[in-house]
Amino acid sequence: MIKGRFAPSPTGRMHIGNVFTALMSWLSVRSRGGEWVLRIEDLDRQRSKYEYARQIEEDLSWLGLDWDEGGLDDIGPSGPYSQSGRDSFYQAALERLMATGYTYPCRCTRHDIMASNAPHQSDGRIIYGGKCRPATLPEMSIDMQAYEHSAIRLYVPDRDISFTDRVYGPQSYNLSRDCGDFVLRRADGAWAYQLAVVVDDALMGITEVVRGNDLLLSAAQQQYLYRLMGFDVPEFAHLPLLCNPSGVRLSKRDKGISMSEVRNSSTADEIIGRLAYYGGIIPEAVPCKASELVDIFEWNNISSDMRIII
Ligand code: GLU
């Protein structure tokens, strides 16, 4: 059974880039008779809002993108489908990872991390320099006291993690060089995205992950976690990000891309038609329904060198 998912963070209204991801993921599973899960990624308790999650559901339904499992009403057997209700699953996974002996407590402040970060990291990525990393990996025991008031980091090896992305082809990352030991749980107790997403995708039986190409490196971090925890690794398909007319990746600051604005000026069929055209599914941006695209959808039409200007 093919199972895909859409995993929005309810920190605001969806924008057209989120809808593009949702549409491609939905078409990918529907074109092969698979199922689609809607997971609410509300780990950031301060910025996430119930009303935004409801609005995401309403926008998806308006666009004709239906889900078989998930959402705020917890439809299906793998709930709850909001990350804020899944602490016990993350805790169990964390304990499993701690038992490997590959985790360690870290008391570095943001300032410590920035101070030891290589200055050439111009893309904003923060690479952990390993200040708190023990000289030798600890014994396989869980000394919870050592972790009090600390973030929990995961040791990453200095070797390549390779995988084939359905759109971007062969990928290879060295986590030690590209991100450093990463956080599983923050000092304030908040779960890290990397841990939560792997636990959820694995326990929800997700077989393919479709999302924006800004998460390609995360896919390598996640594959490391899948293997450490003994889970099956899903397939990954990362999508080119939509750009504004100056060729820069769309950001929330760009006018006219939020669903609140888009819905004022376009019908659902017009939006779907435009996005299907950007995704190379139809030759012209004519209005259509998502359900009409199921039989003609093909991954081959989407390539990593596409520049999608909207
Ligand atoms: N929650 C993430 C976002 O809204 C998506 C993460 C994922 O698809 O793995 O950007």
Low-confidence region ranges: none
Q: Which ligands occur here?
A: glutamic acid
Strand content: 15-25%
Beta-strand segment tally: 12
The number of helical runs is 10
- Average pLDDT, rounded to a whole number, is 93
Structural class given helices, strands, pairing? alpha/beta
Instruction: Report how far the terminal alpha carbons are from each other.
Output: 34 Å
Spatial order of strands in the largest sheet: 1-2-3
Globally, the shape reads globular
Helical fraction equals 25-40%
User: The biggest beta sheet, please?
Assistant: 3 strands, parallel
Provide the succession of SSEs.
Answer: EHEHEHEHEEEHEHEHEEHHHE
Radius of gyration: 20 Å
General description of the model:
With 310 residues, the chain is α/β, with parallel strands linked by helices. It is built from 10 helices and 12 strands. The strands form 5 sheets. It has a 3-stranded parallel beta sheet with strand order 1-2-3, with helices on one face. Strands 4-5-8 form a 3-stranded antiparallel beta sheet. Strands 6-7 form a two-stranded antiparallel ribbon. Strand 9, helix 7 and strand 10 form a beta-alpha-beta unit. Helix 6 packs across helix 7. The radius of gyration is 20 Å and the shape is globular. The mean pLDDT is 93. Glutamic acid (GLU) binds next to loops.
Keywords:
alpha/beta; 310 residues; binds glutamic acid; 32% helix; 10 helices; 3-stranded antiparallel β-sheet; single chain
